[in-house]
Design a protein that fits this description.
By secondary structure, this protein is mainly β. It is built from 1 helix and 8 strands, in the order E-E-E-H-E-E-E-E-E. The strands form 2 sheets. The protein has a 5-stranded antiparallel β-sheet with strand order 7-3-5-6-8, with no helix packed on it. Strands 2-1-4 form a 3-stranded antiparallel β-sheet, with no helix packed on it. A hairpin with a 3-residue loop joins strand 1 (about 1-5) and strand 2 (about 10-15).
């Protein structure tokens, strides 16, 4: 999959990586939209390279074993755990089930 990596500058690099696998309480989302906040660019001042993007809207591709509220094909909005790989600046993103919800009809 393609992903964007933020560097100091700000500078963005587009790279390739494997599609992540969700853990038991996580959801794999095919990203349709991602939000950018100021901190997404400022964080590179203390983290040399970071795959980021916290706000995700998309379609569920896969759910972890403990996720019962959602299923593949559901449209969702979610918040990605900050400062770790597999954020919403990629074709697929990981979110915890407890940070995921159905979006309002005008979003997705």
């Amino acid at each position: 999959m393609k992903e964007a990596i933020n560097h100091v500058g700000p500078k963005v690099e587009i790279g390739e990586s494997s599609i992540p696998e969700p853990k038991d309480d996580q959801i794999l989302i095919k990203t349709i939209a991602s939000d950018t906040n100021l901190k997404d660019w400022k964080v590179t001042e203390f983290a040399a390279m970071l795959i980021e993007g916290d706000d995700i809207a998309g379609i569920i591709e896969k759910v972890g074993a403990n996720v019962i509220e959602f299923k593949p094909g559901d449209r969702v909005a979610a918040f990605f755990e900050m400062l770790i790989p597999n954020g919403s600046y990629a074709e697929y993103a990981i979110a915890w089930g407890y940070t995921t919800s159905p979006p309002t009809p005008d979003i997705l």
